[in-house]
Amino acid sequence: MRHSSPLRLLFRNAAQLITLSGPPVPRRGTALGKLGIIARGGLLTQGETILRVGPSHSLERQALRLRAEAIDCRGCVVMPGFVDSHTHLIFAGSRVNDYELRLRGETYEEIAQAGGGIQSSAERVRKAGASSLAEQARKFLTQFAAHGTTTLEVKSGYGLDFEQEIKILRVIRLLQAGQTLDLVPTLLALHALPTSFRGRPRQYVDQVIKRLIPLAAGVGAAPEAAPGFSPAHAALKGGATTPKNQAARERLAEFIDCFCDRSAFSVEHCRRVLEAGRAFGLVPRIHAEQLSRTGAARLGIELGAASADHLDQLSAADIHALAGSGVVATLLPGANFHLGLKTYPNARKLIAAGAAVALATDFNPGTSPTLNMQFIMSLACTQMRMTPAEAITASTINGACALRRADRIGSLEAGKQADLIVLDVEDYREIPYYFAVNHCGMTVKRGRVICARP
Ligand code: NIG
Ligand code: FE
User: Fold this and answer.
1) CA–CA separation, 414 vs 42, rounded Å?
2) Residue 161 and residue 93 in contact, taking contact as beta carbons nearer than 8 Å
3) What are the two backbone dihedrals, phi and then psi, of residue 49, each rounded to the nearest 5 degrees?
4) What is the DSSP letter of 222?
5) Residue 389 binned pLDDT confidence (cut-offs 50, 70, 90)
6) Which of 36, 235, 363, 448 meets the CB 3.0–4.6 Å disulfide criterion with 87?
7) Is 363 in the pocket of ligand 1 (CB under 6 A)?
8) Best residue for ligand 1 mutational test, from 119, 191, 307 (most atoms within 8 Å of Cβ)
9) What is the C-alpha separation between 325 and 28, in angstroms, rounded?
10) What distance in Å separates the CA atoms of residue 77 and residue 65, rounded to the nearest whole number?
11) Is the CB of residue 11 less than 8 Å from the CB of residue 418?
12) Cα separation values, 284 from 165, 180, 191, Å
């Protein structure tokens, strides 16, 4: 049955309604700890948007007039849905073998050099059809929603050649169409050097710039076959009936990313690729200073990147430079946890310097197989000494900034998208405190309840 009038919901009597309303955006320094809490809070939605936020009693009359359906939030925290600004959602199978090898003492880089790592995920993606990739991703998306994430960035990157990268981007497009969550597509143009280009990174970078980027940006012609770079359209589902240039006309990505590291790509190669992407309208972001310090964060600043992510190996000068920039410093402690590292990014120094810190899962099969932002908050607090309030801000409004969507999502304010979650805790500090459990009882996306626990 179709509703003739928009759906209206009243969330009433929340023990704490965390609004994160008002400037500054992104939050830096002490502003990271300001949640804008309304005790006994209420929120009224109309259709996809938030109509009003305030003390619950102040909304009752209007809610009654609008015949809003009331949802009792007594004893619960209501807050914006999590904005997970860094995921590698599209992969096939898992990497449990790598995991076990690491537990026996091999390092991430050793396993990658021996043909495990990203190459082995790429091998599995190559063998998987688009529909099975989508099917696995859909299962994860159900879990993302159940754990309170309402928007997530999704990178390509396990394709490593045109055909496969475009296949992944088209899977993301397919999921966007059928999904209740918002997915933000990123072309991870440089992730690992394909074996067919071993010893020839420059040639690979040339191909990425000449062929893959225009195609992902929706302005390139379908490529002719080049060594290791077969025409994109051939592998696509329904490819036989797809006009040769259709894939070329679709804008499949919004952001462009590179893995800049000693065992991945150099600053110079990443600069060329990110600049090329930017020229095609893709906004740069960068995997920076994870395993080694390369100067990638500085490159991100120089190029006006939306975010620089990981940031384990920053120098004092890097921290200062990030703080003075518009680049969101995105920390991914799930990777440190899963890799069993003793050290974590220095959140305290970044916050003290005034950097705009965000948190994300880095959901991927190799280094961070978690999609639970609540657990990421626990890691941020216990391992990086962020306060629970800072961790919430970093997981919502600052994540929205990293995705350039702070005007629409990341806080609970009139006029914004009604993306919110109801958590079964009375005090927001219990979210990271009771760790490794799911506190999310209800997820609301664009004003519709998409997930509710009985
Ligand atoms: O963000 N650093 C590069 N990419 C992923 C890991 C990818 C993988 O190992 O599959 C990351 O940690
Ligand atoms: Fe990553």
Assistant:
1) 12
2) no
3) -115, 165
4) P
5) very high
6) 363
7) no
8) 191
9) 11
10) 26
11) no
12) 17, 26, 14
| 30 contact partners, CB below 8 Å, separation of at least 6 | none
> Phi first, then psi: what are they for 396, rounded to 5°?
-125, -85
45 backbone dihedrals φ, ψ, rounded to 5°: -110, 155
Answer yes or no: pTM beyond 0.85.
Answer: yes
309 C-beta closer than 6 A to ligand 1: no
**b/e burial code for range 293-332 (CB count within 10 A of at least 16 → b):** bbbbbbbbbbbebbbbbbbbbbeeebbebbbebebbbbbb
Report the residue count for the chain: 454
Token pair recorded at residue 259: 């893995």
Ligand nearest to C-alpha 154: 2
Residues 15-59 pLDDT 10s: 999 999 999 999 999 999 999 999 999 999 999 999 999 999 999
Q: Residue 199 has which token pair?
A: 């010893």
Determine whether the shortest distance from the Cβ of 112 to ligand 1 is under 6 A: no
Give the pLDDT score at 241. 31
| pLDDT tens digit sequence for 160-215 | 999 999 999 999 999 999 879 999 999 999 999 999 999 999 999 999 999 999 99
DSSP for 283-307 reads EEEEEESSSS--SHHHHHHHTT-SE
CB–CB of 403/128 below 8 Å? Answer: no
Long-range contacts of 406-411, Cβ-Cβ distance < 8 Å, separation of 24 or more: 406/25, 406/26, 409/80, 409/81, 409/83, 409/150, 409/151, 409/182, 410/20, 410/80, 410/83, 411/19, 411/20, 411/21, 411/36, 411/80
**In this structure, how many other beta carbons lie within 10 angstroms of the beta carbon of residue 282?**
24
pLDDT per position as a tens digit, 133-144: 999 999 999 999
The closest of 323, 319, 256, 324 to 285, measured between CA atoms, is 256
Mean pLDDT confidence for 428-432: 98
- Indicate the angle between helix axes 373-384 and 388-395, nearest 10 degrees: 140
Atom number of ligand 1 nearest to Cα 112: 9
The residue type at 220: G
What region does 22 belong to: left with phi over 0, alpha with psi -120 to 50, or beta? left
366: tokens are 């190799």
Q: Which two tokens stand for residue 279?
A: 């020229």
Nearest CA to ligand 1 atom 9: 366
